[in-house]
């Protein structure tokens, strides 16, 4: 999961990021609310952990923006320096899903995160293959994709990249986000590798600019988006 942390106390933010990364999550840290909001809705986050008292735009304002302006149902845990009942009730009434009192207790926080993930996204599937998305059937065992009377076998990275695009149909994905998910790092040297793999799967899966069903398009200066062609029933 990709978790956004809004926390201006650097040592606490670093501790939270280390804890989450050890538990298999990708983390983005923001020291002020406006910086976080500026990345929305283009960037994808699976959960927000928001501190109440941060510069520029506080956690309450960010929560209102997420829920009211964007209409996101993404789970939110807020951090509070005390267990004042009025503050907690105000946060939960405004759309937060849970809270954690500082200083954060790591085991308790992870238990809250895991419980919230289960409530929001359900238990992880042990085997969701073969999986069909808009007419493309992915077979994990064979590393193959069947579509419209065609079948192709992909390399491991091609398969992972293609499945990731299809799993996020119609959502813009940043280059950094894609490289972290597929290669586990986002170094500049991987940028060309990403573009080459995109070219390969465009050709092999017929999802280029002339496709009548779905097209993998570049977003200038940002990343890629796999989109369904309007008015097509796939």
From TrEMBL:
Domain OmpR/PhoB-type: residue ranges: 124-228
Keywords: DNA-binding, Phosphoprotein, Two-component regulatory system
Keyword Lyase in annotation: no
DNA-binding region: 124-228
Modified residue annotations for 4-aspartylphosphate: 51
InterPro entries referenced in this protein's UniProt entry, alphabetically: CheY-like_superfamily (IPR011006), OmpR/PhoB-type_DNA-bd (IPR001867), Sig_transdc_resp-reg_C-effctor (IPR016032), Sig_transdc_resp-reg_receiver (IPR001789), WalR-like (IPR039420), WH-like_DNA-bd_sf (IPR036388)
A Pfam family this chain is assigned to: Response_reg
GO biological process assignments: regulation of DNA-templated transcription
Entry keyword annotation includes DNA-binding: yes
SMART domains membership: REC, Trans_reg_C
Molecular function in Gene Ontology: phosphorelay response regulator activity; transcription cis-regulatory region binding
GO CC annotations, alphabetized: cytosol; protein-DNA complex
Response regulatory domain mapped to chain residues: 2-117
Protein name per UniProt: Putative Two-component system response regulator
